[in-house]
Amino acid sequence: MKNSLITFVLVSMLAASCSEEDALRRAAATITADELRSYTMTLAADSFMGRKPFSPGEAVTVGYLAGELEKIGFRPAFGDSWFQSVPMTEISTRVDGPVSVMAAGRRLDLSAPDDIAIESPSQKTLIEIKDMPMVFCGFGIVAPEYGWDDYRDIDVRGKCAVVLINDPGLYTGDTTLFKGRQMTYYGRWTYKYDEAARQGASAILIIHETLGAGYDYSIPRKSSISSGLYMERTQGETAPCDVCGWLNAEAAAELFSALGYSVENLRREACKKEWHGFGMAAAITMKLENTHTRNTSVNVAGILPGTKKPDECVVIEGHWDHFGIGEAENGDSIYNGAVDNGTTMAWAFEIGEAFASLPKQPERSVILFFPTAEEQGLLGSSWFTAHPPVAPENIIACFNNDMMLPIGRMKEIMVTGYGQSELDDMLAEAVAKQGRYILPDPTPETGMYFRSDHFPFALIGVPSLFARGNCDSREHGKEWAAEREREYLTRMYHKPADNYYPSMDFEGISEDAKAAFEVAWRIATSDIRPRWKSGSEFANIRPVVY
């Protein structure tokens, strides 16, 4: 009798396990290339007007997202609302006349935006700078854990700091210097702007270099001629520099040549810990006019409540915003953002549909989250993580994506930020069933881990995954895939050419969505809490819960 009972229990457990796995497979099968195509085609349509916050395109976009969330069976995530207000200030900066630099007695006139790309996050309406001293500050980094301080023994208060992009590890080949070729957050332009403000600088200019930035000069150029969105600052926060911007490589070379320096030589020297910044014997003059509009954009999110632990959740996210209607190229002025980020929103919806199709809802809640203002510096996701609909410690994991190229099935799945958390290992198991392998990001110097909406989640201690097939085409191989990515980055990224094209192949994104769904399902239907790996800079942000 005892043996019969044990056998019955084992058989029942096995049957339950098989039933759950069958449910997983059936739900994953609802993720299709055709539906991914349909979502992307809609979200990248001209009728969405480029999906820019504070524009008519925002109302069209967020209304569509909320409607689709309801259609697939999710509920509003913010009480009885699909929307979370994100207060921001829109600032349009006009450069009045040329920007001039007196360098060793020689006057250089810089044309905005072609030579110098200038933005102003200041609340001032008029900014007049007259003969402001310029200071070269190396990489503009203060990193005590690396024993590094580019601002030591120099005073930039009330001056213009000039800095290099990225961090020293990229340019030396020394894997022990910062993180070698892998960009740290100290290499990001956002950090450099913030650090210059903390040091008391009134202006900061970053010398553009394509390898270190991860994109050509056209990207900051275009950003500077569009209005910028900024979070409203709280009392006690450090005010930003009045002027922030970039020098293109040619303008920087001309400026430093007039002073008797080579930018390349300075970059090599600035990679040495003992190197010191210096006053440039140069002064900059400019006049800016700012127009301010205070308004609120919205994050959009829906929730599928958990059955046993509804206060714990898994987040699936992809930003909804792009650049709206702007500078025309080849007769097209609508920045549709099909790949950035229509394909990811489609990916998120398909994962959400898969969850909603399960015969039994997961134990934990699932949140589909579409943040605003990613293109302006991760503003919507930063607001969400500061004001989440559940306790921050109950956000178990975040799955984010961005710029998913619809170029067919891939042998690999590329993990940006590989080695950060146990989510990598769970993903490896899932993609192995698809006959695929995990690939760490082959271009870590671009700092993509700090450039998308999972990053604010990581900053509050939430293990986060950013993974997509990108580098090794099943049909055409690695070189072909690399050429497709180069083509996108040079011809379409942040340009009106980022449109939906009938030739797009969504089969690879479908496989990516199925793999992410499986990992998210295993977390949502269990007590699993993925952990950060030792050595991750995010490992000690919140205590480990077992």
CATH hierarchy class name of the largest domain: Alpha Beta
Q: Report strand %.
A: 15-25%
Question: Can you summarize the main beta sheet?
Answer: 17 strands, mixed
Quick one: CATH superfamily of the largest domain?
Zn peptidases
Average of pLDDT: 94
Identify the notable features of this structure and list them briefly:
546 residues; alpha/beta; Aminopeptidase; 2 domains; two-stranded antiparallel sheet; 21 strands; globular
Structural description of this entry:
There is one protein chain. The chain is 32% helix and 25% strand. It is α/β, with parallel strands linked by helices and 546 residues long. It folds into two domains: 41-71 and 305-524, Zn peptidases (Aminopeptidase); 92-290, Glucose Oxidase, domain 1 (3-Layer(bba) Sandwich). Strand 19 (412-415), helix 12 and strand 20 form a beta-alpha-beta unit.
